[in-house]
UniProtKB/TrEMBL annotation:
The lineage of its organism: Bacteria, Pseudomonadati, Thermodesulfobacteriota, Desulfobacteria, Desulfobacterales. It comes from the Bacteria. This is PKD domain-containing protein. InterPro entries: CBD-like_Golvesin-Xly (IPR033803), Ig-like_fold (IPR013783), PKD/Chitinase_dom (IPR022409), PKD_dom (IPR000601), PKD_dom_sf (IPR035986). CDD domains: PKD. It comes from Desulfosarcina widdelii. SUPFAM superfamilies: PKD domain (SSF49299). Residues 867-946, 968-1030 form the PKD domain. Pfam families: Golvesin_C (PF25275), PKD (PF00801), PKD_4 (PF18911).
């Protein structure tokens, strides 16, 4: 090889040389030998073959040179190896074999059948009875000679008795050391009785192998008859069973039967040995050891009718009344006459489009199908035709999809008119074609002149572009010129003018009238202005200022009177108006009902005069129980003075456990309804066929009875449906006298403060607490400062003498004009014996008002407070759409939360929430919390995996949660739930206090106070792959540390929800007369479908995060004449939490089924 030298050349470069014996790699130093030929070695090559010599450059900064290679022929000495073999075998290769100097040569020795290698001599010396030998590095001639010897053989005599066989049979020869297998097969009706090997039984085996045969053997098989049994198979009328009659089955065998009903009949029951096994269509008797019977009976299948009709100029097949058996399907074909096209097909009164075929699947009720046709004789007027005129400037649009060669655009009031003079009087369907563009208007008015007057139709040119869009059917007289005019809308939008089509059509349905009532209730925004603006842009005619409009729907030939209300009485009137269409938007108020607010209350987002469960301002149309987050009602809605009492002063809180003198606890249940004329209580199902639970966030099972029976709390198996919380509880605050709740001055703790003017000590606030362990404690107070506050507010601490344990008290006077908005220590440390103690604040002050807000008690050695966020989900992967239920866990005081689900959606109201992922993908989820101690955020990357067609493989991921509290006093028992995914075989917990556990779901007791980090490591089935989740500041254990606000919330039944009962509804559902209802509010499906069970209802199944947009989208889509399914799709596009339900149909006939 030739190379050049350079300072950067590598000193260790590999060169691979392919030759006849393989590939050899040598290493060269290019710091030397440059500019000359360097010998790399001597190799053998075969004539005509191709070989590679390859140099590989080395990593920088070193360099490598590739220049030239020279191959010079060299004569290599050769040697011969003479290979011979004796009789009864061979050697390969044999004869005289030539080998080049330093080459190698391998030989294979093979004996004939019945012989073995006796010896192998190399250069006359034995190398043993080897079957292969290689001469390495040949430098001289050699010889190799193989000899063979006969192998001894033995015989195995194989015999069988009657009624079976052995294979092979007779005398079988086996060479010494070999093996021989035998198969034993009984005849039909017989079984192997025994197998004797060399006269000894090896059992009733069906195969036997002699291994390593070194002597003669015998094998003998015998057989015995198998007992048989009979199965008598019979069937009643209207069906058959196969096989039938008396069927013989041998002992231990199995027999299958197939049951087939005649047309129009179904299997009613199948009896096996007299006992029902259900209406099965197959049954198999396994391991038959006795006689049996099987009997099938049949019953007529219920049938339903589908009434198929067609308008003029076409047909539907089949037509008329078509009978379909229950659960069957029926297909229809729609065919227009020559010169006509399908205009529309209505199924059960709703349009499914201009389809030429339709199939009813799984028929469980009667149906109708109607087909309508339109003439193919049309008049099309394109832009630029002689029949068009315009005003203003119209330019050719660059948008694609025009009718004909182009479309036009303009703005700011320009008009474009298509003139139509019919040759024959009659009805014509008017259609328009436009192109879309990012700037296109969503509401272009089209004025249509016709024989009965003028109609204005608004079109949305952001949708349905490049197709014919119907604007209604109208009557026209022959010889009269009619104008169809579009008016361009203002900058920055543009309006398109393209083409108009008029098609001869039958008369439209008779004109009908509809009353629509829209109620923008109290919510986070005031929707009234949005409703008015959308109606205006759609071309609705305003009759009364911001309260009454009219709108014409051409496709339904319907005039709609639209009223906007703002009171309970107006909504009550709407719900009881015949065939009314009611739309409501507002807070659901945890299911208590809707309400209306003044403009000032809407702006302030606070209503101060709502105080009771049965408050006159709340329209109660709730279920019998509601689960309210009391703090949420007071702080988020916000009704700061609401409390779970009735106006008569009684409490509305449900019992927490059984045997309560006030009654039984509430229970979770599936919300049910009844179809008119049907006594069955059906579950209401969402679009994913999941039944709706009333308290779905509880986490326990839901009760259901098709007969409407309630669960019995005295039956142990039914107690699981009741929501109980037997944990002990007592008040932590007592307020005596006349104190006023207020939020006037900021800086209060949590939600408000109490105040009272100076007095004589009659007004008192007492904060009560239980000390678990005797010792010294610190006390703090919190207040919002103001110049009018007391300068000597008296806090009296009742404590114990550390030596005598006698009760003592000290009054600490605080200047509440300063040092507020924080925890301020009250004096020194105080000694408390274990048990109940209190701190009392009175109005006994010389100046100003006294503020009672909050106090805090902590052990002198307590760990610091923390705020820690965490969350988990049991299901984290699956096929789209995937429902995932998230559960948050918060350690410390929080005031605000925020979920980021990773798909562009958020929530700030729920710590336990179900969320749907509708698109395949991998999602990162974040949960944030903030409060008096600051904020904390936890992000779980690639946490949710959603597949398109099949479940993704579960990823190994450690995951856990606390199954109870995260904070408590020594000794604190913490319970942990494993929520990991993957093929896990081992768990290892580190509790952060020096102890560990290998249980899957351990319970651990903390015996010292502190803040502890908990970790879980899981191991996959391969034993080497692990995943670890570490949760810092997850457990806080103390002797005592507690903050007590002036608001003492009642005990929750679960999480933060307190269950309340409601009294008589404010409206009797029997008085409902409406036909359609849209309820846009958080979780309105869970809260209100138990009450609003009439006609068609659109509702939500989660928190509404899109404000009033669903109300506006629904209103526009409906007024555009869209079907319910199309309206639902429009709602799903903005927030996939909406469904709709027909309460006059059973679940199987629902539109989303």
């Amino acid at each position: 090889m030739w190379w050049t030298q350079y300072a950067s050349r590598s000193q260790n470069i590999p060169v691979a040389i392919a030759f006849s014996g393989g590939t050899d790699t040598i290493f060269i130093n290019q710091q030397e030998g440059g500019g000359k030929w360097n010998i790399l070695g001597l190799y053998h090559f075969i004539q005509g073959a191709s070989y590679d010599i390859t140099i590989t450059s080395q990593p920088g900064p070193a360099s490598t040179c590739a220049d030239a290679v020279r191959l010079a022929y060299a004569s290599i000495p050769s040697h011969t190896i003479t290979a011979t073999s004796g009789a009864n075998g061979s050697i390969d290769p044999s004869g005289t074999v030539t080998v080049f100097e330093e080459g190698e040569q391998a030989f294979t020795i093979t004996p004939n059948t019945g012989f073995a290698i006796d010896d192998v001599l190399v250069d006359g010396s034995s190398v043993g009875a080897v079957n292969a030998y290689t001469f390495p590095d040949v430098t001289a001639d050699h010889t190799i000679e193989a000899s063979f010897a006969a192998v001894p053989s033995h015989t195995i005599t194989a015999t069988s008795g009657a009624n079976g066989s052995i294979d092979p049979s007779g005398t079988v020869t086996v060479f010494e050391g070999g093996e021989q297998a035998f198969t034993i097969t009984p005849n039909t009706g017989f079984a192997i009785d025994d197998v004797l090997v060399d006269g000894s039984s090896v059992g009733a085996v069906n195969a036997y192998t002699f291994p390593d045969v070194t002597a003669d053997h015998t094998i003998e098989a015998s057989f015995a008859a198998v007992p048989s049994h009979t199965i008598t198979a019979t069937s009643g009328a209207n069906g058959s069973i196969d096989p039938s009659g008396t069927v013989t089955v041998f002992e231990g065998g199995e027999q299958a039967f197939t049951i087939t009903p005649n047309t129009g009949f179904a299997i009613d029951d199948v009896l096996v040995d007299g006992s029902s096994v259900g209406a099965v269509n197959t049954y198999t008797f396994p391991d038959v050891t006795a006689d049996h019977t099987i009997e099938a009976s049949f019953a007529a299948v219920p049938s339903h009718t589908i009434t198929a009709t067609s308008g003029a100029n076409g047909s539907i097949d089949p037509s008329g009344t078509v009978t379909v058996f229950e659960g069957g399907e029926q297909a229809f074909t729609i065919t227009p006459n020559t010169g006509f096209a399908i205009d529309d097909v209505l199924v059960d009164g709703s349009s499914v489009g201009a389809v030429d075929a339709y199939t009813f699947p799984d028929v469980t009720t009667d149906h109708t199908i109607e087909a309508y046709f339109e003439s193919e004789i049309s008049v099309i007027i394109d832009n630029g035709d002689p029949e068009t005129t315009n005003s203003g400037g119209w330019s050719i649009s660059s948008a694609t999809g025009s009718y004909g060669s182009d479309s036009l655009w303009s703005r700011d009031g320009s008009t474009y008119t298509w003139n139509f003079t019919p040759a024959a009087s009659g009805y014509y369907k008017v259609s328009m074609w436009w192109t879309t563009y990012p700037s296109r208007t969503t509401s272009a008015p089209v004025t249509i002149e016709h024989a009965d007057g003028t109609t204005i139709f608004n079109v949305n040119q952001q949708q349905n572009a490049s197709q014919w869009n119907g604007l209604g059917t109208y009557r026209f007289d022959s010889g009269v010129n009619y104008e169809i005019t579009i008016t361009a809308q203002s900058y920055p939008t543009t309006t398109c003018a393209d083409a108009v089509k008029l098609t001869a059509a039958p008369p439209p349905p008779p004109l009908s009238n509809e009353q629509m009532f829209i109620f923008p209730g109290y919510a986070s925004i005031d929707a009234r202005e949005d409703v008015a603006w959308w109606l205006e842009t759609m071309g609705a005619v305003e009759v009364e200022d911001n309260s009454l409009w009219t709108y014409y729907i051409p496709s339904r030939n319907r005039n709609v009177e639209i009223r906007m209300g703002n009171s309970i009485e107006e909504m009550r009137q709407a719900l009881t108006t015949e065939d009314a269409h009611v739309l409501y938007f507002g807070h659901s108020n945890y299911g208590l009902g809707g309400l209306f607010a003044t403009q000032q209350e809407q702006l302030r987002q606070e209503i101060n005069d709502i105080r009771y469960i049965d408050d006159d301002r709340i329209f109660n149309y709730s279920s019998k129980w509601v689960h309210v987050n009391i703090r949420g009602m007071r702080t988020s809605q916000a009704y700061p003075y609401w409390w779970p009492n009735f106006q008569d002063g009684t409490s509305g809180i449900m019992p927490y456990d059984f045997d309560d003198p006030n009654g039984d606890p509430a229970y979770n249940y599936y919300i049910t309804y009844q179809v008119p004329g049907d006594s069955t209580h059906y579950k209401i199902e969402n679009s994913r066929h999941a039944p709706i639970e009333r308290f779905s966030d509880w986490g326990g099972p839901a009760w259901y009875s098709p007969d409407g029976i309630e669960p019995d709390p005295t039956i142990p198996d039914e107690q699981q449906y009741f929501i109980t919380n037997p944990e002990p509880w007592k008040p932590s605050v007592e307020v005596v006298g006349d104190w006023t709740q207020s939020q006037k001055f900021s800086g209060y703790y949590l939600e408000n403060y109490l105040y009272a003017p100076r007095g004589q000590g009659d007004n008192q606030v007492k904060w009560i607490f239980d000390i678990p362990t005797a010792g010294f404690y610190r006390l703090y107070a919190w207040w919002s400062p103001s110049s009018g506050r007391s300068t000597d507010a008296p806090y009296t601490i009742y404590y114990n003498n550390p030596d005598t344990l006698a009760e003592e008290n000290t009054t600490v006077r605080i200047n509440q004009r300063n040092d507020g908005w924080q925890w301020t220590q009250l004096g020194d440390e105080y000694y408390f014996d274990a048990g109940e103690h209190f701190v009392m604040l009175t109005d006994d002050t010389a100046t100003g008002t006294v503020v009672g807000d909050a106090i805090r008690i902590e052990h002198a050695d307590a760990p610091p407070e923390v705020l820690s966020a965490d969350f988990s989900a049991r299901v984290r992967s699956g096929v789209a759409p995937l429902e995932v239920t998230f559960s948050a866990q918060i350690l410390g005081e929080d005031s605000e939360i925020l979920w980021d689900f990773g798909d562009g959606t958020f929530n700030s109201t729920r710590t336990y929430i179900s969320h749907f992922y509708d698109e395949p993908g991998v999602y990162t989820v974040t949960f944030s919390v903030s409060g008096p101690l600051g904020s904390d955020t936890v992000t779980k990357t690639n946490y949710i995996v959603v597949g398109e067609n099949e479940d993704p493989d579960p990823i190994l991921r450690a995951e856990f949660r606390s199954s109870w509290y995260q904070e408590g006093s020594v000794p604190f028992e913490a319970r942990f739930d494993d929520m990991s995914s993957g093929n896990i075989v081992a768990w290892h917990w580190d509790f952060g206090d020096g102890t560990t556990s290998d249980e899957q779901e351990p319970t651990h007791t903390y015996t010292t106070q502190g803040i502890f980090t908990v970790a879980l490591t899981v191991t996959d089935a391969d034993g080497t792959t692990t995943s670890t989740e570490v949760k810092p500041d997850f457990i806080r254990v103390n002797i005592f540390d507690k903050a007590i606000d002036n608001v003492d919330y009642p005990k929750a039944h679960y999480r933060r929800k307190t269950l309340l009962f409601v009294k008589e509804l404010d409206i009797d559902p029997a008085d409902f007369k409406y036909s359609r209802l849209l309820y846009v509010g958080c979780d309105s499906g869970h809260y209100f479908t138990e009450t609003f069970q009439r006609g068609t209802m659109f509702y939500s199944l989660n928190t509404n995060t899109t404000q009033d947009l669903p109300l506006l989208i629904y209103m526009r889509s409906y007024l555009e004449g869209k079907s319910d399914h199309q309206i639902w799709q429009d709602l799903q596009a903005i927030d996939p939490i909406f469904d709709y339900y027909y309460f006059d149909k059973p679940p199987g006939d629902q539109p989303l089924d």
